[in-house]
Design brief:
Blueprint: H1 3-24, H2 29-35, H3 43-72, H4 74-93, H5 98-113, H6 115-126, H7 129-160, H8 165-168, H9 171-181, H10 186-189, H11 201-224, H12 229-251, H13 265-294, H14 300-306, H15 308-328, H16 331-347, H17 357-384, H18 392-412, H19 414-418, H20 424-448
Helix pairs in contact: 1-6, 1-7, 1-9, 2-3, 3-4, 3-5, 3-6, 3-11, 3-18, 4-5, 4-6, 4-9, 6-7, 6-18, 7-14, 7-15, 7-17, 11-12, 11-18, 13-14, 13-17, 13-18, 13-20, 15-17, 16-17, 16-20
């Protein structure tokens, strides 16, 4: 295996375990609450915090992780993240009570935050031009499948063994990734590290607290309501910290998130498109999965299987579309792909209470999968290919933060969109909103994205 091939495999495996863990746990929640009935955190609160603890630490620290990977080296940061992820996964699997599990999940999110920015930065530092777009396409294909395969894998593990296997399963890919990482020379993995740069401690603190506060409020407002100080208190602190963070980054001598990145056209417009497209991706997947089970009568495993066509299309086509975007530019694919995906969600409007899979669900899933395969690799290439390789870590982290916060915001408004109960009418309203967000992502891409920087990996233009 050549060094570039090894870099790509390591990047895929490291990101895959982080994305997989974010989705595979959901179907294990009932089994977890049934077994862990002692301690201060049990029942519904335990189910919520098993998910929330991971999301809060991952979302709030991902910008810091990107900065760390640029300053201290991608290989080193990834190794720390992998070891931490393995240790915390074992801790989750051995959890004796709910509180222990929640704390372990929070620490697992810290480790997970170190993986994604480092993995993409390694790809940007190792590949260029069309090879870079093809590599990003392969990374996208495999890592995007993690969030879709997660519910199916989780259902099988819980049904066949125990919910604890949802965490034990992480140890194998982590061990394989660490072994492969040893064979990557420092120059290949850490080419983007910038000598003389240092961590923006104040900026990192403001970003972490700001994201943690706002993410916490968005998650918990569904349980407590916006009028509760448990929600508006952290929200106010979070928003204040984020505003202060922006002001500080404009004045800091060595900012964690350099404002100059947002003067690069494709980076700025690509992140706007990301917010719309990933808001639709997270919200659409959420409502389809819940509707198929609560209304259509599907089991958890069947609901996961229903979305397998999306996974297959991503695996089959993402690398190809990534290569085409590297050759012809990302604008066309970022425009047409979301529109095709949106049409797929509108096609799901034919779904009735019976949710007949072959005639009502499958056609929309196939069309959405095709649109997603056309979109994600060109989107990532357009954003990260427009900035210097030395900023690839923080650029990747910023884009990941945008996508995750966008998903949280849209899902936070699920109750308003659905109308309180996810019945057939609420499901149809959700499909229209999801399609509208995808169409918006296509329009933003057409208006804002340019192809000039792509050919031959030339210098980015503002």
């Amino acid at each position: 295996m050549t060094v570039p091939q090894r870099v790509l495999v390591v990047a895929i495996l490291a990101s895959f375990v982080s994305f997989l863990d974010g989705s595979v746990v959901n179907v294990a929640l009932p089994a977890i609450s049934d077994e862990l009935t002692t301690g201060p955190v049990t029942g519904l609160a335990l189910q919520q915090w098993v998910v929330d603890a991971y999301m809060i630490t991952l979302g709030s620290l991902i910008l810091l992780a990107g900065s760390l990977s640029d300053v201290h080296g991608r290989r080193r940061v990834m190794a720390v993240g992998l070891v931490g992820f393995a240790v915390t996964s074992v801790a989750c699997a051995l959890a004796p009570d709910g509180l222990f599990l929640v704390v372990a999940r929070g620490l697992q999110g810290v480790a997970g935050a170190l993986l994604v920015p480092s993995s993409l930065a390694m790809i940007i530092s190792t590949f260029d031009g069309e090879r870079q777009s093809r590599a990003i396409g392969s990374w996208t294909a495999w890592t995007s499948t993690a969030s879709i395969v997660g519910p199916l894998l989780g259902g099988v593990l819980v049904d066949a063994f125990s919910w604890r296997w949802v965490f034990w399963i992480n140890v194998v890919p982590v061990a394989a990734t660490l072994w492969l990482l040893r064979g990557i020379p420092r120059s290949a993995a850490e080419e983007g590290s910038a000598a003389g740069r240092r961590i923006d401690t104040l900026g990192a603190t403001l970003a972490a607290v700001g994201l943690a506060g706002t993410v916490f409020a968005l998650i918990e407002q569904g349980r407590f309501g916006w009028s509760s100080p448990v929600v508006w208190g952290p929200a106010l602190v979070g928003v204040a910290c984020l505003v202060t963070f922006v002001v500080w980054e404009l004045r800091a001598p060595d900012p964690m998130l350099p404002p100059r990145l947002f003067r690069v056209r494709n980076f700025a417009w690509g992140n706007l498109a990301t917010a719309a497209i990933y808001g639709a991706l997270y919200f659409g997947g959420f409502v389809v999965t819940v509707f198929l089970q609560q209304v259509g009568g599907y089991s958890a495993t069947q609901a996961g299987l229903a979305q397998v066509p999306i996974t297959l299309l991503l695996l089959a086509l993402s690398t190809r579309f990534g290569a085409l975007a590297g050759r012809y530019g990302p604008r066309l694919f970022m425009t047409v792909g979301p529109v095709v995906g949106g049409v797929g969600y509108l096609l799901l409007l034919t779904t009735t209470d019976d949710a007949v899979y072959v005639t009502q669900v499958l056609p929309g899933m196939v069309l959405f999968g095709l649109g997603l395969a056309m979109t994600v690799a060109p989107l990532t290439s357009a954003i990260l290919g427009s900035i210097p390789a030395s900023d690839a870590g923080i650029g990747s982290a910023a884009n990941n933060a945008v996508s995750r916060v966008a998903g949280l915001v849209v899902i936070a408004f699920a109750g308003v969109i659905v109308g309180g109960v996810l019945d057939l009418d609420g499901f149809h309203r959700s499909l229209v909103v999801t399609a509208a967000l995808l169409f918006l992502g296509g329009v933003l891409s057409w208006v804002g994205i340019r192809n000039e920087h792509v050919r031959g990996g030339s210098a980015p233009r503002a």
